[in-house]
Amino acid sequence: MDSNDFREYAHQIVDWMADYFDNIEDYPVKPNIEPGSIFDQLPGQPPRDSKSMNDILVDFEKIIMPGMTHWESPRFMAYFPANKSYPSVLAEMLTATLGAQCMSWITSPAATELEEQMMVWLRDMVGLPDEFTGVIQDTASTATLAALLMAREKITDFGVNESGFPANQQFAIYCSSETHSSIEKDVKIAGFGRQNLRKIQVDDNFAMNPEALEEAIKSDLNAGHKPTCVVATIGTTGSTAIDPLKEIAEVCSRYEVFLHVDAAYAGTALLLPEMRWMIEGINSVDTFVFNPHKWMFTNFDCSAFFVQDEELLVRTFEINPEYLRTPEDKRVKNYRDWGIQLGRRFRALKLWFVIRSFGVDTLQKKIRSHLDIAESFKRQIENSEHFDLMAPVPLNTICFRYHPPSMDDEKILNRLNMKLLDEIQQNGHFFLTHTKLDGKFTIRVVLGNTRLEQRHADELWSYLQKITQTLPPSK
Q1: Cα–Cα distance list, 103 to 117, 161, 190, 279, 345 (Å)
Q2: What mean pLDDT comes out for the span 243-249?
Q3: Rounded CA separation 231/262 (Å)
Q4: Distance between CA atoms of 338 and 334, rounded to whole angstroms?
Q5: 171-230, pLDDT tens digit by residue?
Q6: What are the residues facing 440 on neighbouring strands?
Q7: What 3-state class would DSSP assign to 465?
């Protein structure tokens, strides 16, 4: 392929991309295919000879597209969204073309300095204190791992980095029982051991109980263990519960425990001043993460990780072999020392495009519209005799179940709602997911897609009325 071919096919692909955005609602959100059906269409061996781009694009349409789940669809209401927008996609195209390796200032000065400024913008946009400085990570899982490693090195005075874990010493990590599963994974990776993760009980709103946290810390101290880090969650995965940050921060301050806040999804709501009650107590937080790639219309991956102690972060990760040293090192930020990865993508470019293209006012308007749509959907659930609201709705995730009158057997209700969700998934017009709250099978609706309008939530509500009338009695 030469530059003329590239130009021709690039135009063709951009036209396809624009058509895809225009026609996204015509696709089934979730493909109804069997496992292995895509794999079986792919040759077992790579081609010996080159294939034309025309042939490749034909196979893309024939083999790949029928097996895609369309996260861009406004009827994708599962998990949390992985949103994108026109300016973000355009920036990703430029990022791919530039192919910059942004590990050090000298490897792409503009990438480093744009990232530095974007983190200031984001910090101010979500209302974090000026003492915080930030870096873009790939995901919140990675950012939380970085926070745990910082906590580990702080409590051991960088001893684990130098000599490994001391013998016969256990370091305790705390989170709520509703915290994202990545915390447990990070605890394993960081070397603390799963047995040293304390899952603190939650209150009736599924938020961490600060009194239970304090009791767990006291118990560990009495047992000779070292309370090392608390992970508070702003917007849990199951129900978007908001852990009481101020009270948790007070507990951490009393016992000198590192405090990390995982606001991966809900953090974008902090663009709205009226939502900043969620981070009361933020001045006492050590690290904070949220994902613009979830609810701020920025392509995956882009996770904003903020720290109060920049030196602690850098000392935790810094490796300075001769081949990476440059004369500018003492005057610049080398983001390779701000996280796990040496190699880094130019993620700041898409943030710059998104924030400038939308503007803060329009971003706020879209977030408010999602919250309004969720509030409307919540009221429909509350006013129905056939559905239960299963958790508070502080944001735009609604947890509910189908509950026919006079049916109170929890096992039957669980099976009935499993059947309901299966019917929804098989149809493919909407994509929802589930969780379990207090052992009850609960269906989740997340109303946060870039293209979401009130009509899409209204369509879901009408669909639920229709499909529940056809459900057979569960035994």
Answers
A1: 17, 21, 23, 31, 8
A2: 97
A3: 7
A4: 8
A5: 999 999 998 888 999 999 999 999 999 999 999 999 999 999 999 999 999 999 999 999
A6: 437
A7: helix
pLDDT in tens, 318-333: 887 766 777 777 777 8
Question: Which amino acid would we find at residue 409?
Answer: D
Q: What percent of the chain has pLDDT over 70?
A: 99
d(CA 469, CA 156): 60
Both tokens of residue 282? Answer: 């933020």
Long-range contacts of 19-22 (CB under 8 A, 24+ apart): 20/72, 21/72, 21/86
Residue type, 276: R
Q: What is the pLDDT of residue 408?
A: 87
Q: What are the structural domains of the chain?
A: 1-30+69-84+359-475 (3.90.1150.170), 100-345 (3.40.640.10)
Q: What is the pLDDT of residue 474?
A: 53
Q: Which two tokens stand for residue 318?
A: 């810094």
Residues 6+ apart with CB under 8 A from 316: 146, 149, 150, 153, 158, 161
Structural tokens at position 291: 């994902």
How far are the Cα atoms of 155, 242, 356, 456, 459 from residue 462, in angstroms, in the given order?
55, 30, 37, 10, 5
The pLDDT tens digits for 26-77 are 999 998 888 999 999 999 999 989 999 999 999 999 999 999 999 999 999 9
CA distance 334 to 449: 34
My answer on whether omega of the bond before 301 falls inside 30° of 0, hence cis, is: yes
Q: Which of 390, 450, 445 is nearest to 79 (CA)?
A: 445
Integer Cα distance of 42 and 271 in angstroms: 45
Pairing of strands 440-446, 397-402: antiparallel
What pLDDT shows up at residue 168?
85
Query: Tokens in use for 83?
Result: 């949103």
- Is residue 475's pLDDT more than 60? no
Cα–Cα distance between 12 and 15 in angstroms, integer? 5
Nearest by Cα to 152 from 167, 166, 133, 138? 166
